[in-house]
Amino acid sequence: MSIEASKAHDLTVSDALIAEAESLGLDIKGAAEKGIALAIKAEKERRWKIENAEAIQASNDYVTKHGMPLAKYRMF
Prior knowledge:
Helix content: 55-70%
Largest sheet: none
Mean pLDDT: 93
Structural class: mainly alpha
């Protein structure tokens, strides 16, 4: 497990949301970090799909026209 440096940031969060998280015994800082990490991952995936849309379409077109590569060797 790596130890990462952290820095304090001002973040405004709904009082009701914080109260509910505290009542459930959640680690608010950990939950916030996980949520931000998930948002970053989702945005990177979205951008990757846009950046690679042409290549993905070309691959799909190839399979449509020629079938799956090495399909004759499949046992299922």
